[in-house]
Write a structure and sequence with these properties.
The complex is a heterotrimer of chains A (287), B (416) and C (327).
Chain A (H helix, E strand, L loop, with lengths): L1 H31 L6 H17 L5 H24 L6 H23 L15 E4 L2 E4 H23 L1 H11 L1 H6 L4 H27 L5 H16 L4 H21 L9 H10 L11
Antiparallel strand pairs in A: 1-2
Helix pairs in contact in A: 1-5, 1-8, 1-9, 1-10, 2-3, 2-4, 2-8, 2-9, 3-8, 5-6, 9-10
Chain B lengths: L1 H20 L11 E7 L6 H17 L3 E2 L2 E9 L4 H14 L4 E3 L4 H13 L4 E3 L15 E3 L8 H10 L5 E7 L2 H16 L3 E8 L7 H12 L5 E4 L5 H11 L6 E3 L20 E4 L8 H13 L6 H19 L7 H9 L12 E2 L5 E9 L1 E3 L2 E3 L2 E8 L7 H6 L13
Parallel strand pairs in B: 1-3, 1-4, 4-5, 5-6, 7-8, 7-9, 9-10, 10-11
Antiparallel strand pairs in B: 2-3, 11-13, 12-13, 13-16, 14-15
Helix pairs in contact in B: 2-9, 2-10, 3-4, 5-6, 10-11
Chain C lengths: L2 H14 L1 H4 L3 H26 L7 H17 L4 H23 L5 H20 L1 H4 L5 E2 L14 H24 L1 H11 L1 H6 L4 H27 L1 E2 L6 H14 L6 H15 L7 H15 L4 H17 L14
Antiparallel strand pairs in C: 1-2
The chains are: A mainly alpha (287), B alpha/beta (416), C mainly alpha (327).
């Protein structure tokens, strides 16, 4: 019985982490139609920067996470402003440049942080356990759910209640009309890309006590982000949320119940769902 | 219009190809000894590959690039954790650079991709890859392995678990690939032969972000008293991730690990969750031999890193090559003689103690059981027991061992 | 003799005589690799360049062909049977692949192909009884057509070159055919094509089959070149690499994928011997291509050469000449 409780709760915690990872990608793709294949690299860089600030500069864990987010947001801004902006509409070139950047980032990380993994200590406040239905659960994992919830609410309020959010939603719905109406779409794009990148970097640091940071985590996490975004539908916050939970559940229950099929547990359902509903569970138009 | 563009370019391409491919290289003149190294300097196995280069380079630097009176040309090739690239690099080393000996590769799938080719070109290969059958049922006559087969360090671990730790029931988990299967199979065979029982064998994908689905099952088994300990055989960066998640999940059962799980080079990257980890390895940093001290000093001097198994075995490779070339009076032209001399090497003072090789080219050496603890604020792996002269067949009769199937996901089968 | 015929002849002459002027057998082998990856890239280009369908799962088809042949050979089939069997299985597999993937276009297509590719990779990894998992399958020998053994670098290269040239001709014919034009039409104006009465889905499906066939041929060459196949050949990275070959060289052009294949193979295998941080350099090259020649190396180089020639001739650049882009 406790096995199922653990798996259920962990589906939500893994879902929370995936939400942090993928919501940036979903925003960027939803608004800018750019498949940001550097997303995994941004996640990894966030982890490396954050871990370095935390372990070697002695910063507080949360301060390090925020600092990492800001650094990665700035880096993302540079990428958008100087590389992606000139490629509007050229999907193939966007793929080329984002993969090229991820190659460069991965190699740089190998040089700076070597091939060894970095284990990040769980913040001391949350090293204990909470008891849910009689099962002990690591507190930090529950904290991740809380963080994901806070960010989800903050993003929703941004999108729904602010002018910036209205402009973003307008841009997602119809980019050209938004321009016609006077929305400064280029600046919007840079802001959204920074936001998406910052979220990825933040997720990299927040996730590091669980996932550690190691070379290759960029290509390990990127497919997960893609699965979440595609299943949930791009550009939809609710879609990211639901997609994350679905992937979290597939992962946990699938690996436990069908260990023989562990390699297929994510992609086989994805093929089936996409074959039946190509726009994903919550997407609005067929891509 | 298009046609002209295309074909002009085609002609240019031909010339361009010529210019690109005729890359200059210096073919060393005279009697220099050419050593090649294929390792993963990039890709998923970069951690181990980089250490391999560091180990062998340290050895050569300490010897001033001179072995048995001959100057050494050392060529390092990056296999990028990819078998096809490993093959190309093997071709580069053999056909273009005409090396006398190839060191590496690291991964089993890389070795399997090149073993036939290297054997056909009669080049001695000193590999670290743990794939069992290359020195058992499908032997490569030009192979020498100074590290261990996948199960070579697990057999003694199982003995230690049964006899010293008095364990009776364990659960075993490893990465879902050949190295994982072979390790757990080896552990299971010896453990159950001494009265123990492996209750369940679990395999997680090589890329597993979250071990919770497995940890939850381990927790259930622990709570119901079905198991007393956990045996793991994780490789690459996974040992660190697993131990952290194991500890964070509140699991308290003792953990025993194979040769990659507690490698001394990984120690600085673990947190306190590694304390108490019992690991079995062909190499241990606390071994007090002169050559181990030399090795550790050289690694510190040239690279300032914690040295582990991969670097140490590469250093050992250097010693073995030196000994063999000395015995041959410096002559390495006859490849059959060279591999014979390599396999005949027997040394007493090495970073891993006394070693010699069996007739398949696999090492017979000591295996060290260590238990991790914290000393002066740092994690260390002091040795708690040494098993002497362990071969790839443990105490089994060689013929009997070879007649059973190679350790795999389903062999040995679990006792129901 | 027209200039372009001389150029074609020169090009083929260079390639045909390569084993004799390139030096070491190692470089002959590299050239074989460039050619086989060029075939693979040409296949992916059919979809990505001419069809506007970006696939991140084509390594799955490449690997399916190689595995099929390797397993057939392992069970005692002769080389011809293994080759034909592998191609048949690959076509069948491509039909399923296309049937699933063509449910969407754009990012949806990318994602489904990625997912299907991952499923194929998972199969290669876990279906131990058939594929031997990550230990891969070894192949004992290369075929010997008409009694000529292909074990050495030169005969293998010549065979690969012949296959490559035939493939190039086939692709050229395809691209210039009415079917090729209609495929480009579905890329540029799918709704209009539909309105004009073209069966867009079917056109794309056939294009997928052709693309799969080319990937299968490349897969067979890969298998015989390495005499080994393992799941590493089917990873997402492998699919991304061939896509990068197409894009960096110039999608939608005939020569682009070939140049792209050359770039990647040389960087990965040859340059890596001299440049330790070759991954970084390769990434930087891609970024540079995007900045300087966003359409790819081939179209970019053509443009530059054109401008240089016109500057030399002293006439006004471009303005007076209609710029014909590749279809």
């Amino acid at each position: 019985m406790s096995l199922w409780i653990v798996l259920t709760v962990n589906s939500v915690t893994l879902g929370g982490l995936l939400f942090l990872l993928s919501t940036g990608f979903s925003l960027i793709f939803g608004l800018m139609r750019i498949p940001n294949l550097t997303h995994g690299s941004l996640f990894m860089l966030g982890g490396y920067f954050g871990a370095s600030l935390f372990i070697w500069a002695g910063l507080n864990f949360w301060v390090a996470a925020l600092a990492a987010a800001l650094l990665i947001a700035a880096f993302g801004g540079l990428i958008e402003r100087f590389l992606l902006r000139r490629l509007a509409g050229n999907e193939l070139a966007q793929v080329l440049v984002t993969l090229g950047i991820s190659l460069m980032v991965a190699d740089l990380c190998l040089v700076v942080w070597t091939g060894d993994p970095i284990s990040v200590a769980t913040p001391s406040l949350f090293t204990g356990f909470a008891h849910i239905f009689g099962v002990a659960f690591p507190l930090y994992r529950l904290v991740i759910i809380a963080i994901a919830a806070v960010i989800a609410i903050a993003l929703w309020m941004l999108l729904d209640r602010t002018r910036l959010g209205a402009m973003i939603r307008a841009g997602v719905d119809d980019r050209d009309m938004a321009r016609v109406v006077g929305i400064h779409v280029s600046k919007l794009f840079t802001i959204v890309f920074c936001l998406g990148a910052g979220l990825a970097g933040f997720a990299g640091m927040i996730g590091s006590p669980i996932l550690t940071v190691y070379p290759g985590i960029d290509s390990d996490m990127l497919p997960l982000a893609l699965v979440v975004v595609i299943l949930g539908g791009t550009g939809s916050l609710l879609g990211s949320l639901v997609g994350s939970l679905v992937v979290g559940a597939l992962y946990n229950f699938g690996q436990a119940m069908f260990p023989e099929l562990a390699y297929f547990v994510l992609f086989l359902p994805m093929v089936i769902i996409l074959a039946l509903r190509p726009q994903g569970l919550f997407g609005r138009h067929a891509p | 219009m298009k046609l002209r563009r295309r074909t002009v370019l085609k002609g240019l391409a031909g010339a361009g190809v010529a210019a690109t491919l005729k890359a200059p290289y210096v073919r060393a003149q005279g009697a220099s000894l050419k050593l090649g190294l294929i390792c993963d300097k990039t890709g998923g196995l970069a951690e181990g590959g980089i250490q391999m280069e560091q180990g062998l380079t340290s050895f050569l630097k300490a010897k001033n690039y001179t072995i048995a009176g001959r100057k050494v040309d050392f060529i390092v090739a990056d296999s990028a954790s990819n078998p096809a690239t490993a093959k190309t690099k093997a071709q580069e080393l053999i056909e273009r650079d005409q090396v006398d000996v190839i060191n590496g590769p690291l991964a089993a799938f890389e070795l399997l991709a090149i073993t036939d080719y290297v054997a056909a070109h009669k080049t001695p290969m000193l590999s670290l890859a743990a794939a069992e059958d290359v020195t058992q049922r499908k032997p490569n006559p030009f192979l020498l392995r100074a590290s261990a087969t996948s199960s070579q360090a697990m057999h003694p671990l199982a003995d230690y678990a049964a006899k010293e730790m008095k364990l009776k029931k364990v659960v075993a988990i490893a990465d879902d690939f050949a190295f994982g299967y072979e390790q757990l199979g080896g552990f299971q065979q010896v453990f159950e032969g001494e009265g123990g029982r492996v209750v369940k064998k679990m395999y997680s994908p090589l890329v597993t972000a979250d071990y919770t689905p497995y940890l939850a099952q381990i927790d259930e088994m622990a709570k119901s008293g079905a198991i007393e300990a956990v045996v793991q055989g994780f490789a690459a960066a996974n040992p660190v991730k697993f131990m952290k998640q194991y500890h964070d999940a509140g699991l308290k059962l003792p953990v025993l690990g194979g040769e990659t799980s507690g490698d001394d080079a990984l120690l600085p990257h673990f947190g306190d969750e590694a304390i108490g980890l019992v690991s079995s390895s062909p190499y241990t940093a606390d071994l007090k031999t002169k050559s181990n001290e030399d090795f550790l000093a050289a690694m510190k001097k040239y690279y300032n890193v914690a040295a582990g198994q991969y670097a140490a075995i590469m250093w050992l490779n250097g010693m073995v090559i030196e000994e063999a070339v000395k015995k041959l009076g410096g002559k390495t032209d006859n490849k059959e003689e060279l591999i014979k001399a390599l396999r005949a090497v027997s040394l007493t003072d090495t970073p891993r103690g006394p070693v010699k090789f069996d007739h398949f080219g696999n090492i017979i050496g000591d295996i060290f059981i260590r238990k991790c603890e914290k000393k002066d604020g740092k994690l260390v792996n002091p040795t708690v027991k040494t098993y002497r002269n362990v071969s790839q067949f443990w105490t089994f009769d060689e013929k009997k061992f070879l007649s059973q199937p190679v350790y795999s996901r389903d062999y040995p089968p679990l006792k129901t | 003799m027209s200039v372009h015929k001389i150029a074609i002849g020169l090009g083929i002459l260079c390639l045909a005589t390569l084993p004799w002027w390139v030096g070491n057998s190692y470089y002959i082998n590299i050239s074989s690799q460039i050619l086989l990856y060029a075939i693979f890239a040409l296949g992916v280009n059919i979809l990505a360049g001419y069809g506007g369908l970006v696939s991140l799962g084509h390594a799955g088809l490449f690997g399916l062909s190689a595995y099929a042949a390797a397993i057939l050979l392992d069970h005692g089939a002769g080389h011809l049977a293994a080759i034909l069997g592998a191609l048949a299985i690959t076509l069948a597999g491509t039909a399923v692949f296309a049937g699933l993937s063509l449910r969407a276009t754009g990012i949806g297509f990318v994602m489904i192909t990625l997912a299907v590719g991952q499923v194929l990779w998972g199969l290669a990894y876990r279906w131990l009884s058939v594929t031997n998992g990550d230990n891969g399958v070894n192949v004992a020998s290369r075929p010997a057509p008409f009694g000529i053994g292909l074990d050495d670098a030169t005969p293998f290269y010549v065979t690969t070159l012949i296959v490559f040239l035939l493939t190039l001709v086939a692709v050229a014919i395809f691209v210039r055919s009415p079917f090729g034009a209609s495929l480009a039409g579905t890329r540029d104006q799918p709704r209009r094509m539909e309105a004009l009465g073209y069966h867009v889905w079917l056109i794309r499906f056939y294009a997928c089959l052709f693309s799969g066939l080319l990937s299968g041929i490349a897969g067979l060459l890969f298998l015989y070149y390495n005499e080994f196949i393992s799941p590493q050949a089917i990873t997402l990275t492998a699919s991304a690499e061939v896509l990068l070959m197409v894009i960096s060289g110039g999608a939608g052009t005939l020569l682009g994928p070939i140049v792209g294949a050359g770039l990647l193979v040389v960087m990965k295998n040859v340059a890596s011997a001299y440049i330790e941080r070759w991954n970084f350099v390769l990434g930087a090259i891609f970024v540079a291509i995007v900045i300087l020649m966003p359409d790819g190396l081939v179209p970019g180089t053509v443009r530059l050469t054109r401008r240089a020639l016109q500057a030399m001739r002293g006439s006004r650049p471009d303005a007076a000449q209609p710029r014909l882009e590749e279809p």
